[in-house]
């Protein structure tokens, strides 16, 4: 089984997409992450849902989870709205990591190794300078376990 067999169309965002729009896209389509593309439509990064949360959750709550418990429910439910004016660029790690990108001929083991190495729930698939889509962790597991 190859990447082309597990490939699915996948939504993309740009560096200037608002974090709130990215969060809505993640939630509306039940996605593990998003592909961040450059002006030519090629992958720049993968924005995992956890990176959106890391930007949205106040630092004091990340540092001391007990403090998150003392925030009243009304404010706790609204924490994502506080990032409405922030962009995807701000949600990405400051130091670029290895980009989880492969070609359509990659085997499932190659894809799995790339996901594990980059801690990414999806891998972008590029062929001849064009983004074809992505292989998600779910599709990879489904494909491997069905074999």
Structure, explained:
The chain is of the alpha/beta class and 147 residues long. The protein has a single domain (3-146), classed as Roll (CBS-domain), CATH 3.10.580. Helices cover 42% and strands 19% of the residues. It has a three-stranded mixed beta sheet with strand order 1-2-3. Strand 2 (33-37) and strand 3 form a beta hairpin. The longest helix has 11 residues, at 108-118. The protein is globular. The mean pLDDT is 86.
Fold-level CATH name = CBS-domain
* H/I helix tally: 9
Rg (C-alpha, Å): 17 Å
Fraction of residues in β-strands: 15-25%
Most strands sheet? 3 strands, mixed
How does CATH name the architecture? Roll
Give start-end ranges of low-pLDDT stretches.
none
How do the helices and strands follow one another from N- to C-terminus? HEHEEHHHHHEHEEH
Describe the global form: globular
The CATH homologous superfamily is named CBS-domain
Produce the secondary structure layout.
Layout: H1 3-6, E1 12-13, H2 19-28, E2 33-37, E3 43-48, H3 49-56, H4 59-63, H5 65-70, H6 73-76, H7 88-91, E4 101-102, H8 108-118, E5 122-127, E6 130-136, H9 137-146
Parallel strand pairs: 1-2, 4-5
Antiparallel strand pairs: 2-3, 5-6
Name a few traits of the molecule.
19% strand, CBS-domain, 6 strands, alpha/beta, Diverse_CBS-Domain, CBS domain, 147 residues
């Amino acid at each position: 089984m190859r990447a082309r067999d597990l490939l699915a169309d996948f939504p993309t965002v740009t560096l200037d997409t608002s974090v709130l729009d990215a969060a809505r896209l993640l939630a509306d389509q039940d996605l593990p992450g998003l592909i961040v593309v450059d002006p030519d439509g090629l992958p720049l990064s993968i924005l995992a849902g956890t990176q959106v949360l890391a930007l949205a959750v106040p630092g004091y709550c990340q540092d001391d989870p007990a403090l998150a418990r003392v925030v009243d429910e009304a404010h706790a439910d609204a924490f994502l709205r506080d990032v409405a004016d922030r962009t995807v660029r701000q949600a990405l790690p400051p130091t670029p990591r290895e980009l989880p990108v492969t070609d359509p001929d990659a085997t499932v083991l190659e894809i799995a190794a790339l996901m594990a190495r980059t801690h990414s729930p999806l891998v972008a698939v590029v062929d001849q300078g064009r983004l074809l889509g992505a292989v998600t962790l779910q599709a990879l597991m489904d494909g491997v376990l069905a074999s």
